[in-house]
Specification:
The protein is α+β, with helices and mostly antiparallel strands and 73 residues long. It has a single domain (10-70), classed as SH3 type barrels, CATH 2.30.30. The protein has one helix at residues 53-70; strands at residues 10-13, 18-25, 29-33, 41-44, 48-50. Strands 4-3-2-1-5 form a five-stranded antiparallel β-sheet. Strand 1 (10-13) and strand 2 (18-25) form a beta hairpin.
Length: 73
């Protein structure tokens, strides 16, 4: 989708609609980790772009909705 992202950059995985921090570029994919920490996931390079403020907000709302559905505070 865009030029290569640097390790530490905030990125958006359009395939799974998640924001993550670039932990590593591995040729055809990136290793991303949630900004607050957690389990890494792999995303194809073509599905990752720099995250925007709107991406960050959308991801935060989705996370809160998921927590709410599970009944946790």
């Amino acid at each position: 989708m865009s030029d290569a992202l640097a390790v530490g950059a905030l990125a958006y995985d359009v395939r799974v609609r998640r924001v993550g921090v670039v932990m590593e570029e591995c040729g055809t994919h990136y290793a991303l980790r949630p900004p607050q920490g957690g389990r890494e996931w792999d995303a194809p390079v073509e599905d990752v772009r720099s995250a925007t403020a709107a991406d960050w907000l959308s991801a935060a709302v989705a996370e809160r909705n998921e927590i709410s559905r599970k009944g946790r505070p």
